[in-house]
């Protein structure tokens, strides 16, 4: 018997979900590029992972951090920056914690003791420290110094990485704070340390340090425009798109083949299976959205108690959350500047083959296609909601489905099917 207590689905939280789908490129970038290169002392940029709400940015980097922690790396917790707060304080506190993991505090070197005191001061006062202690170094350089010391400790330990994850970076409202933070992290990423190699020769190496920044696409404007080239040289930005249907289907494969194991108080371990049609329905309703995938899975799980999740249960479960699913997409649309929203709406109103810049612009009441150029460019390269191919197409499949189809209602026919089967049960 399955109960809500056993559900492996987790909508609405950014913990690492048990039913994990896709993101293989980003996971392999960490495992095969970032970690091995930085461990070897080679240069490798920090990573910025942006995307619309619910696409799984936080979960992705939490999964990477969990992998790092399992390997014994020194990892900060996910440092979520609440709106309007001072990120330097938050980062300083986290770094003091990593310094403890690295046993820096027990160092008898006086220099380290003074450095830790200065970082304590940043943790307490943040950016405003600049105003209060004008003779001392700027907070950012204090943070860089500590990062370098932690990195040195990691080199001495061998085979251990330092991983920093700062989340919701779009909330950093103060330009000064953002700039200090990016410079502190960037300087540590590019810092080169002379190490002695066998044979007594000195070679320069980078620190075994990885930095992940995650947040909404707006961050690209904040960091890109103002900090410009320096930021781009130090961080590589990826904009997440939706998950592929094949990724979602593979994630559910264990339910079809061996069953999902749950512990049953009375009978020991039991397994929960899923009809292939149930899986197809979950994949179809999710439209590549990780959040909706978790939501559909959870509701299907809740919709019955048997050992097999059926298609009817998926449809019935979804019925209870369809307005929540719609609200998810509405929130994404509501956050957009009105020009961008209007662009999407006019684009959705056209037949797929007619979705060209000129036609969309005309629909928007603009004279020339180029008048809508900047808007379409933002929707493509900053937000990843559309692709400017020939013709233009939607990349965000839930936005497309919401604007152009019956979705989030299940396809016609399912409602009937469901009511017939519900009668059958009753
Ligand atoms: N790769 C994945 N496979 C399956 N589920 C996922 C995956 N990534 C995220 N999820 C689920 O999707 C939901 C949203 O994920 P998450 O909170 O990480 O998104 P986000 O992009 O950080 O959103 P926000 O912008 O609101 O912070 C969570 O319920 C999470 O469990
Ligand atoms: Mg998040």
| Helix-strand makeup class | alpha/beta
End-to-end Cα distance: 20 Å
Shape: globular
| H/I helix tally | 18
Helix content bin = 40-55%
Number of strands: 13
Quickly name the level 1 CATH class of the largest domain. Alpha Beta
Contiguous runs where pLDDT drops below 50 for at least 5 residues: 418-426
Mean of residue pLDDT?
88
Radius of gyration: 25 Å
What hetero molecules are bound to the protein chains? adenosine-5'-triphosphate, magnesium ion
Q: What is the subunit organization of this protein?
A: single chain
* CATH 4th-level superfamily of the largest domain: P-loop containing nucleotide triphosphate hydrolases
As for the CATH topology of the largest domain, it is: Rossmann fold
Number of separate domains: 3
Give a description of the structure.
Strand 5 and strand 6 (201-206) form a beta hairpin. This protein has 18 helices and 13 strands. The strands form four sheets. Strands 1, 2, 3, 4, 7 and 8 form a six-stranded parallel beta sheet that branches. A three-stranded mixed beta sheet has the order 9-10-11. The chain folds into three domains: 24-239, P-loop containing nucleotide triphosphate hydrolases (Rossmann fold, 3-Layer(aba) Sandwich), CATH 3.40.50; 243-327, Helicase, Ruva Protein, domain 3, CATH 1.10.8; 337-404. It is α/β, with parallel strands linked by helices and 426 residues long. Bound molecules: adenosine-5'-triphosphate and magnesium ion (MG).
